[in-house]
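Project standup — Tuesday

K.O.: blocked on the structure for the chain from last sprint. Re-posting the sequence here as requested.
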Amino acid sequence: MRILVIGGAGYIGSHIVKMLIEHGHAVTVFDNLSTGHRDAVHPAAQFIFGDLSDTNALFSTLNHGFEGVMHFASFIQVGESVSNPGKYFRNNLTNTLNLLDTMVSTGNTNLIFSSTAAIFGAPEYTPIDENHPCNPINPYGRTKLMVEQALADYDRAHGLRSISLRYFNAAGATPDASLGERHKPETHLIPLILQTALGHRKHIQIFGNDYDTPDGTCIRDYIHVDDLCSAHILSLEKLIAGGVSSAYNLGNGQGFSVSEVVSSAALVTGHPIPTLVTERRPGDPACLVANSDQAIRELGWQKKRPQIETIIEDAWRFMSQH
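H.V.: unblocked you, prediction finished:
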C-alpha cells in the first residue's frame, strides 16, 4: 500500500514509518520538522518538508492518492497548551481541518488519527474504556476531542472514514536501538528517569507521594511504542477492508506507579536514581489505566512487549547509545 504519514519524523511517527516499510508498504512522510528529526525518517521513505497550514503543499502531496493517511502532527505538551492555547487550537484543530478538507477534495478516504487519553479528563472509573465520558481538562485534550468530533461529521458528510487511537503513555524504543524518544524539552517520565541514571539530571521529581495508591505515588499505564504502532497498521487494514469509523483506547491494561518505574529503571540500568518528592501537580489523577479490550477484540491487537522492564530496557539501550 501507499501510505502518507503526517508527522513521520517525530517519536511515534518515525516508529510507524519503520514498521510500515518493514511490512513492505511504500511510505511518504510529510513533516515540518518543528519537533521531529530528519535523521529519524527511514531512508526508504520519501520525505516532503511541509506544514499542514500550507494547503497548496497538502493538495500537491495528497493528489497523488494514498490507500491510507496517518496523522501524528500534533503538539502534545499539556502545560504549554494551558499557557498558550492558541498554538494548540491552530495546529491541532485548524491544521487538521486543512488536512481533512484536502483529503476530501483529493479523494483520500482512510485516516488513522493519533488521539489521546486526555480527552477523558479526570477518570470517573478505571480502567477507562471507550464508553467513559469525555471531559478534557486542558486545551490539549480539548483539541483532540474536537478533532474526533469533526471526524464523525466528515464521515457523515463526505464518507471520510477514520479510526482514532487514544494513547495512554507511549514509551520505549525499537529493540535495535535505532529509534527512541528525543523530545525537546523532554517531559515524559521514563526518559527523564533515564537521563537521571546517566547523570544528566541530579534527581527525578516525584510530584506527590500521598495519593490513594499502594505506595502513594501516581499510577500510569505505559505502552511500548512498537505495540502502539502495530495497532495503527491493524486499524488501517480494517478501514481498507471496508470497516466503519471507530475509536480505540490503547494501553497496557495495567498501571505502574512512579516509584515502581524508578525502581525498575534502577535495576535495568544498574545506576542509582535519586528522587526528590515535591508537591502534587494540579489536575493529576491518582490512577490512569486503559481498558483496551475493544481493540483486542475488534482489531486482533496483541501486546508483545508489555512488561515495564522491557519498555525501560529498550529505552535505556537507545538512550545510552545515542
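K.O.: great, moving the ticket to review. The chain has two domains: 2-170+222-250, 172-221+253-321. Residues 85-106 form the longest helix (22 residues).
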